[in-house]
């Protein structure tokens, strides 16, 4: 109950600063660009795919890559959102305000987590709108879309948890941001190495990035945009 | 047949139950009374210790505070005032010792104990990006004020702290004094039994200081208040009890009357027009010794219990020396404070003996 009060304030404070709005805006623009590029690629490939046996559908070609991209980009953005959760309160000496209130430690941490997770949900909601817009012109594999959404939500949940933990350890928000970014990057590199070296390091690649890919790609279809190529991709497609 | 049985047994049963009922009522009564005496003691601190590494910040501090008392907590910088307050409010874990707030152990049941607490730390814990109203609403809900009472208690706290006109403004844009008031408002908002204020008048102008002192005295009637400060007159003006802490030890724990008693010095200054014959004054009852400062001015040391001023005046007038001045000398609170804090070693030895 008290956690919800803390979460509500956390969410409202996020939207009081320009940070939340700019993050939402920038992410939407970048992902929309990638989505449109992918759409262009799909319409080019459509004729060729049509001839294939067991051809990938529009959901496989468009939605899975979109969510894969979102996972990578949000990995870069999460540290910015989680860095100030507890370290800033400690720095501004407002933490004693929470400590004096009749709220348990679990309540405080849960409140902070739910606050930032709520923001993540809003972000996922905005991202899901893009594939849903395809419904205007055709059908989607809703089951696959739901699986992708769930995977992204779980991924962001784990990112937030890691960020919150490091924010609780750090004295300064920037230190928390750098530590979170480093930890997430390390997970991503492990995943990347795992996929690059085939199955050699496969036992390592149990990280969340990997999990989302498995959910999205049904095992046989590896979206071309996964890991580093995501930035250099659009030119190389054409 | 069945109903007849019932009508016979029921009154009989009732009769049998009577003694048992009385027993239970007696038990409840004693429990209630016990609870009541416990409730009177709003703060009970026992053998509180805190070490930072090897350094001892708070050393076996014990005291109790009852409803209606305002305790002034004095001490030089780094004496352990803030550490003690942080421990009482559950912001710092004690190395050893026990703290009961309203009869509840804050270490065992922190949530229950904290319901009765209001705390203003040294730096007011305000969120600069919120307005005063938003912040106080948040504080009220965090302290479990029921939703229907949030607005009422917020307005009341604002009125008491003189914040009625700045409700819509961002806390970050307010002056230091107003931020301090917001901090006080959040501490008293939910009307806690125990209010703990760490240097509440820092950064306020003289007019605001007077208002806040009046507020503290007002609150002191229904709550127990601990107040830490460097400003000695503040303690004299608003507190009912004084504690001086030095190097983590409690070196003085007295009521304000006791302190005034200590401040009442045992000397008088006497000035006359013509020179004083000290021999003529030594036999005045209560007078110990006389110290001649000038030919016409002397200091008279006397018993603490007897005030010889009246007899001295009579004697001087009857000798025809021409009485110009007769003033009791008072030790200021500063002097007592410096005296105690600079001679801690001797004081603590006295305390242990």
Please describe the topology of this protein.
The complex is a heterodimer of chains A (238) and B (353).
Chain A: H1 2-16, H2 18-51, H3 58-82, H4 87-91, H5 95-100, H6 105-132, H7 142-169, H8 173-196, H9 208-217, H10 229-237
Helix pairs in contact in A: 1-6, 2-3, 2-6, 3-7, 3-8, 3-9, 6-7, 7-8, 7-9
Chain B: H1 2-40, E1 41-52, E2 55-66, E3 70-74, H2 81-88, E4 96-101, E5 104-105, H3 110-114, E6 117-120, H4 132-142, H5 150-160, H6 176-188, E7 194-198, H7 206-220, E8 224-228, H8 232-238, E9 241-246, E10 249-255, H9 256-263, E11 264-272, E12 287-294, E13 297-302, H10 309-319, E14 323-330, H11 333-342, H12 344-352
Parallel strand pairs in B: 3-8, 3-9, 6-7, 7-8
Antiparallel strand pairs in B: 1-2, 1-4, 4-5, 9-10, 11-13, 11-14, 12-13
Description:
The complex is a heterodimer of chains A (238) and B (353). Chain A has 238 residues and is mainly α. Chain A has one domain (2-232). Helices cover 77% and strands 0% of the residues of chain A. Chain A has helices spanning 2-16, 18-51, 58-82, 87-91, 95-100, 105-132, 142-169, 173-196, 208-217, 229-237. Chain B is α/β, with parallel strands linked by helices and 353 residues long. Chain B has two domains: 41-260, P-loop containing nucleotide triphosphate hydrolases (Rossmann fold, 3-Layer(aba) Sandwich); 264-334, 2-Layer Sandwich (Alpha-Beta Plaits), CATH 3.30.70. Chain B has twelve helices and 14 strands. In chain B, helix 4 packs across helix 5. Chain B is elongated. Residues 1-17 and 345-353 of chain B have low confidence and may be disordered. At the A-B interface, helix 1 and helix 5 of A face helix 3, strand 6 and helix 4 of B.
Number of helical stretches of at least 4 residues of chain A: 10
Residue share in helices of chain A? over 70%
Q: What is the correct CATH architecture of the largest domain in chain B?
A: 3-Layer(aba) Sandwich
What oligomeric assembly is this protein in?
A: heterodimer
**% residues in beta strands of chain B:** 25-35%
**Which two chains have the most extensive interface, and how many residues on each?**
A-B, 20 and 28 residues
Q: Roughly what is the average pLDDT of chain A, rounded to an integer? A: 81
Helix/strand-derived category of chain B reads alpha/beta
Which CATH first-tier class of the largest domain in chain B would you pick?
Alpha Beta
The biggest beta sheet of chain A reads: none
CATH homologous superfamily designation of the largest domain in chain B: P-loop containing nucleotide triphosphate hydrolases
Cα gyration radius of chain B (Å): 29 Å
Taken in chain order, the helices and strands of chain A follow as HHHHHHHHHH
Structural class of chain A: mainly alpha
Per the CATH scheme, the topology name of the largest domain in chain B is Rossmann fold
Into how many domains do the coordinates of chain A divide?
Answer: 1
Order of helices and strands of chain B: HEEEHEEHEHHHEHEHEEHEEEHEHH
Strand segment tally of chain B = 14
């Amino acid at each position: 109950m008290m956690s919800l009060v803390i979460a509500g304030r956390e969410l409202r404070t996020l939207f009081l600063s320009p940070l939340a709005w700019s993050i939402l805006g920038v992410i939407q623009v970048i992902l929309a660009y990638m989505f449109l590029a992918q759409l262009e690629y799909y319409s080019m490939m459509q004729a060729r795919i049509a001839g294939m046996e067991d051809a990938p559908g529009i959901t496989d070609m468009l939605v899975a890559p979109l969510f894969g991209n979102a996972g990578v980009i949000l990995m870069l953005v999460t540290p910015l959102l989680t860095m100030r959760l507890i370290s800033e309160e400690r720095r501004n000496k407002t933490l004693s305000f929470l400590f004096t209130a009749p709220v348990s430690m679990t309540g405080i941490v849960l409140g902070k987590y739910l606050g930032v997770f709520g923001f993540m949900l809003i972000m996922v909601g905005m991202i899901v709108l893009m594939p849903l817009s395809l419904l205007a012109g055709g059908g989607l594999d809703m089951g696959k879309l739901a699986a992708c959404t769930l995977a992204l939500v779980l991924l962001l949940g784990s990112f937030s948890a890691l960020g919150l933990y490091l924010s609780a350890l750090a004295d300064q928000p920037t230190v928390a941001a750098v530590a979170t970014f480093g930890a997430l990057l390390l997970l991503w590199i492990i995943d990347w190495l795992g996929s690059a070296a085939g199955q050699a390091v496969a036992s390592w690649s149990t990280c969340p990035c990997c999990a989302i890919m498995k959910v999205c790609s049904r095992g046989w279809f590896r979206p071309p945009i996964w890991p580093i190529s995501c930035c250099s991709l659009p030119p190389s497609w054409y | 047949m069945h109903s007849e049985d019932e009508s016979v047994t029921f009154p009989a049963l009732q009769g049998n139950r009577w003694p048992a009922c009385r027993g239970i009522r007696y038990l409840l009564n004693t429990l209630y009374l016990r609870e009541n005496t416990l409730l009177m003691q709003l703060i009970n601190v026992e053998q509180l210790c805190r070490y930072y590494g090897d350094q001892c910040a708070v050393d076996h501090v014990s005291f109790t505070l009852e409803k209606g008392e305002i305790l002034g907590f004095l001490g030089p910088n780094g004496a352990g005032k803030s550490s003690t307050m942080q421990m009482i409010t559950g912001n710092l874990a004690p190395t050893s010792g026990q703290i009961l707030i309203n009869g509840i152990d804050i270490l065992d049941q922190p949530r229950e104990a904290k319901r009765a607490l209001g705390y203003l730390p040294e730096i007011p814990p305000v969120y600069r990006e919120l307005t005063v109203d938003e912040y106080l609403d948040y504080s009220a809900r965090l302290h479990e004020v029921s939703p229907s009472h949030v607005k009422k208690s917020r307005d009341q706290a604002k009125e008491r702290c003189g914040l009625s006109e700045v409700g819509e403004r961002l806390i970050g844009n307010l002056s230091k004094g107003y931020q301090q008031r917001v901090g006080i408002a959040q501490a008293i908002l939910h009307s806690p039994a125990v209010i703990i204020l760490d240097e509440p008048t820092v950064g306020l102008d003289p007019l605001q200081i007077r208002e806040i002192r009046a507020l503290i005295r007002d609150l002191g009637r229904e709550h127990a208040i601990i107040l830490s400060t460097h400003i000695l007159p503040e303690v004299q003006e608003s507190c009912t009890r004084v504690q001086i802490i030095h190097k983590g030890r409690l070196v003085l724990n007295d009521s304000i009357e006791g302190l005034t008693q200590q401040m009442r010095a045992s000397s008088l200054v006497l000035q006359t027009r013509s020179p004083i014959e000290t021999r003529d004054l030594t036999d005045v009852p209560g007078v110990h010794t006389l110290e001649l400062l000038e030919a016409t001015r002397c200091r008279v040391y006397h018993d603490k219990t007897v005030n010889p001023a009246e007899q001295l005046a009579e004697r001087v007038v009857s000798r025809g020396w021409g009485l110009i001045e007769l003033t009791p000398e008072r030790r200021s609170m500063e002097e007592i404070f410096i005296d105690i804090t600079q001679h801690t070693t001797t004081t603590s030895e006295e305390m242990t003996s």
